[in-house]
TrEMBL record:
Catalyzes the epimerization of the C3' and C5'positions of dTDP-6-deoxy-D-xylo-4-hexulose, forming dTDP-6-deoxy-L-lyxo-4-hexulose. The keyword Isomerase applies. It comes from Dyadobacter beijingensis. This is dTDP-4-dehydrorhamnose 3,5-epimerase. NCBIfam families: rmlC. InterPro entries: RmlC-like, RmlC-like_jellyroll, RmlC_Cupin_sf. The gene is rmlC. Coiled coil: none annotated. The keyword Isomerase applies. It catalyses: dTDP-4-dehydro-6-deoxy-alpha-D-glucose = dTDP-4-dehydro-beta-L-rhamnose. Homodimer. Pathway: Carbohydrate biosynthesis; dTDP-L-rhamnose biosynthesis. Its EC number is 5.1.3.13.
Length: 157
């Protein structure tokens, strides 16, 4: 089987970023929730994400205050079997839950910068994301992320 996960010409024709500067890969056991993560400007990252093996429920939350979809989220399934990809633009918090043991790949438009790292609590009541699982496995770091309201409260409509 052959699979083309990225094509610069296709992305350029669609008006999407073509300058990816960092590739990351992670392994997550079934039930692990990662996120919701983002980096603040000037280190905000767009991410081209895909699953190499396994299956995940991927989540993107719009955190752009001037956007008509600010505070809204999209949920979609990515799988190694389907070979589907998603582009998460800058200005979105991103997370996923592994529905199976999974290897997850990210192509990023900006380098990781620890000082710019931020996130939103995965089970934030204002976002009300249906992760589709019970008894998630969440890292200590992700369990203490702030809520959407504590980060953007004055901007919530």
């Amino acid at each position: 089987m052959f699979f083309e996960s990225y094509n610069e010409e296709t992305f350029a024709k669609l008006g999407l970023p073509v300058n990816f500067v960092q590739d990351n890969q992670s392994f997550s056991k079934k039930g692990v929730v990662r996120g919701l993560h983002f980096q603040n400007a000037p280190f905000a990252q767009g991410k081209l994400v895909r699953v190499i093996t396994g299956r995940v429920l991927d989540v993107a939350v719009d955190i752009r205050p001037d956007s008509p979809t600010f505070g809204k989220h999209e949920v979609f399934e990515l799988s190694g079997e389907q070979n589907n990809v998603a582009y998460i633009p800058e200005g979105f918090a991103h997370g996923f839950v592994a529905l199976e043991d999974s290897i997850f790949s990210y192509k990023c438009t900006n380098l990781y910068n620890k000082a710019s790292e931020s996130g939103i609590l995965w089970n934030d009541p204002d976002l009300n994301i249906d992760w589709g699982i019970t008894d998630p496995i969440v890292s200590e770091k992700d369990l203490i992320l702030p809520t959407f309201r504590s980060l953007f409260g004055e901007l919530i409509r």
